[in-house]
Amino acid sequence: MLLTDDQQALRELASRFARERLAPGYQRREREAGIDRALCREMGRLGLVGVDLPQEFGGMGLSGVTTGLLIEDIAYGDFNVSYVQLLASLMGTILARNAAIELAQVWVPKLVAGEAIVALGLTEPRGGSDAAHLALKASRDGDHYVLRGEKASISFSDQADAIVLFARTGTAGSGAGGVTAFLVPLALPGVQRTRYDDVGSRLVGRGSIFFDDVRVPADHRVGAEGRGFTQVMQGFDYSRVLIALQCIAAAQASIDETWAYVKERRTFGLPLAQYQGVSFPLVEFETQLAAARQLCYHALELRDAGRPHTAEAAMVKWFGPKTAFDAIHQCLLTFGHYGWSMDLPHQQRLRDVMGLEIGDGTAQVMKLIVARERVGRLAVQYARQEPA
Ligand SMILES: Cc1cc2nc3c(=O)[nH]c(=O)nc-3n(C[C@H](O)[C@H](O)[C@H](O)COP(=O)(O)OP(=O)(O)OC[C@H]3O[C@@H](n4cnc5c(N)ncnc54)[C@H](O)[C@@H]3O)c2cc1C
User: Fold this and answer.
1) Which residue, judged by its Cα, is nearest atom 44 of ligand 1?
2) pTM
3) Which residues of 280-304 are buried (b: 16+ CB within 10 A; e: fewer)?
4) Cα–Cα 20 to 30 A to 161, which of 132, 294, 330, 337?
C-alpha cells in the first residue's frame, strides 16, 4: 500500500514513539497494576489517540486506513498499550455518531487527549457469542434509567472511567430489538468491579462490573431505545480490523527479532539463517502476515469509502490473530531454549495475542458472520431460547 505524505509523517512519529518509548517497557508494564495514565496523556498530546474521531470533538477526522497504520505501529511496540487506541476509536466513534452532542462533547475529547478510558460492555456471564440475548436490565424511572445486572469479561474493568454498555430495555424475549446502549460513568453509586487472573494482557486487565440499581441520567442513553445492538455491531466491523492489525503487528515484531537472531546464532558451524528448515517457516509466516495485513487495509478502504465490509472484517478477525499466534509460536521455537524463557517477549506476545482470538468474537463466530454474508440468515438459524 502506498502512503500519502501525511500518513508517512504520522507513521514515522508513531513508529519512533513505539520503538523508543514503548517497546523497551513491554514486559515490565505487564507486571504493573495498571496502565500509566501519564503515558496515555503523552500519546494524546502527540496526536496518537483517536485520530479518526471528528475534529469538532478534538480528533483529526483521519481515515480508518490511517488509524490502522497508527494502531499497527503502537502494537508493534506494546500490544497492550494499543488497546488505548483501539477503545478510543471504537467507543469514540459510537459516541460521536449516536450520543447526544452534549454527552459526546464531554467524553470524546477526553478519549482523544488520552485522559479517559471508556470500556465496552456487551458480554455477560451467560455468554458473549449470543450477544443479543443479554439480560442486564435498564428500567426507566423519570429522567433516569436504573441498571441492574452484571457485565462480564470487560477489558479495563477496574481502570476504565466509564463504560458504554448494552442493556435490555425491552421485554425478556425481545432479542436484539430490545437492546439499548448507555454511557455509564463508573464512579456512580452502586457500581462494583472485579479483575480476573488472566493468561495475558494483564496490563489491560479484564473483569466483571456489577450494577446494583445504578441510576443513570436518561441523557446518557446512546442512540434511541432499542437501537443499541445495531450500533455496536457497526462498530465491530471497524474494531475487528483494528484488532487484527494489533495482532499482526505483535507477530511482526517477533518475526523481525527472529530474523536478527538467526543471522547471529550458529549451529554446526553455520548461522541458523543458512538452514532452510529455519528460514522457510519464517518466510511462510511473514507471507501470511503480509496477506492478512493487506486484507485489513482493504477492509478499511471499503469502510472509508462507505462500502460494506462486514465479511472482510470478520475474515481478518479470525485469520489475523490465528496467523499471528502461529507465527509467534514459530519464532519462540526458533529461539530454542532462550525462547522458553520469561526474559524474551515471545511468550508474552503469544499470551496477549491469544486473548484476541476470543475477545471481540471467536473464530467460529467470525466464520458464521462470513457465512451469513454469503447465504443469509440460513447460516445462523438457531433454536430460540428461554427468556432471560
Ligand atoms: C482478552 C479478552 C478481552 C475481552 N474484552 C471484552 C470487552 O471489553 N467487552 C466485552 O463485552 N467482552 C469482552 N470479552 C468477551 C468476549 O467478547 C467473549 O468472550 C466472546 O464473545 C465469546 O463469548 P464467551 O466467552 O461467552 O464464549 P461462548 O459464547 O460461551 O462460546 C464458547 C465457545 O463455543 C463456540 N461457539 C459458541 N457458539 C457457537 C456456534 N453457534 N457455532 C460454533 N461455535 C460456537 C465459541 O466460538 C467458543 O469457542 C473479552 C474476552 C477476552 C478473552
Assistant:
1) 364
2) 0.97
3) ebbeebbebbeebbebbbbbbbbbb
4) 132
